[in-house]
Amino acid sequence: MADKERKKKAKTQKSGKNVIMAFYNDLKGEFKKVIWPTKKELAVSTVQVIVASLIIGVVIISMDSVYGLALRLFSAFIAQ
After folding, report:
1. Per-residue burial over 16-55, b = 16 or more CB atoms within 10 Å of its CB, e = otherwise
2. What's the rounded Cα separation, in Å, for the pair 25 and 27?
3. What is the model's pLDDT at position 6?
């Protein structure tokens, strides 16, 4: 009876080395599935991100300026 329990425990318990090796092998397998972009695709994506960031920045600055002006005009109107 004790032998069966010991064998069962040995199967369920994994050593630290086995866990690390299993993780490494799984990671290696997942990296093989990744479709890496070409240099051209990467350059195009980078330019798209920069342009989108600039456009969003301009929109935010514009909205801030308009709301700031409206707030100053409103506060000047209230102060009179």
Report:
1. eeeeeeeeeeeeeeeeeeeeeeeeeeeeeeeeeeeeeeee
2. 5
3. 62
Q: Are 45 and 37 in contact (CB under 8 A)?
A: yes
CA–CA gap between residue 65 and residue 60 (Å, rounded): 9
Which two tokens mark 14?
């994994």
CA distances in angstroms from 42 to 34, 37, 50, 52, 60, listed in the order given: 15, 6, 12, 15, 27
Distance CA 54, CA 66 (A): 18
The identity of residue 49, as a single letter, is: V
What is the model's pTM?
0.57
Q: Does residue 13 register a pLDDT over 80?
A: no
